[in-house]
């Protein structure tokens, strides 16, 4: 697999932090190395077109918005 790039977009709220941690935990459980970024810059978030937070992008493709995904849900997206 090529270098995986994952971006969690959030305001820094509890839900956004939970999603960020769940992404890290899912990657660890799947033994996948990825570049995970947590982006809180509202200008950058608006540029993505995400209307509700938290948002999740895998290789710059928005895969989820407005939902705190569980570790299992993140694993399904990455599988």
Report on this structure.
With 79 residues, this protein is α+β, with helices and mostly antiparallel strands. It has helices spanning 14-30, 42-48, 71-78, and strands spanning 4-9, 34-39, 55-58, 61-65. The protein has a four-stranded mixed sheet with strand order 2-1-3-4, with helices on both faces. Strand 3 (55-58) and strand 4 (61-65) form a beta hairpin. The longest helix has 17 residues, at 14-30. It is globular, with a radius of gyration of 11 Å. The termini are close together.
SS-derived structural category: alpha+beta
Mean pLDDT: 95
Give the biggest sheet. Answer: 4 strands, mixed
Approximately what portion of the residues adopt beta-strand conformation?
Answer: 25-35%
Estimate the global geometry from the Cα principal axes. globular
| Order of strands in the sheet with most strands | 2-1-3-4
- Number of DSSP strand runs: 4
Q: Report the total helices.
A: 3
Enumerate the spans where pLDDT stays under 50 for 5 or more consecutive residues.
none
Binned, the helix content reads 40-55%
Oligomer: single chain
Give Rg in angstroms.
11 Å
SSE series: EHEHEEH
N→C terminal distance: 11 Å
SSE layout:
Elements: E1 4-9, H1 14-30, E2 34-39, H2 42-48, E3 55-58, E4 61-65, H3 71-78
Parallel strand pairs: 1-2
Antiparallel strand pairs: 1-3, 3-4
């Amino acid at each position: 697999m090529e270098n995986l790039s994952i971006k969690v977009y959030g305001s820094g709220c509890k839900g956004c932090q939970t999603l960020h941690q769940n992404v890290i935990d899912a990657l660890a459980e799947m033994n996948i190395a990825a570049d995970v970024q947590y982006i809180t810059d509202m200008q950058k978030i608006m540029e993505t077109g995400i209307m509700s937070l938290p948002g999740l992008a895998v290789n710059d493709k928005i895969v989820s918005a407005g939902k705190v995904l569980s570790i299992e849900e993140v694993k399904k997206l990455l599988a």
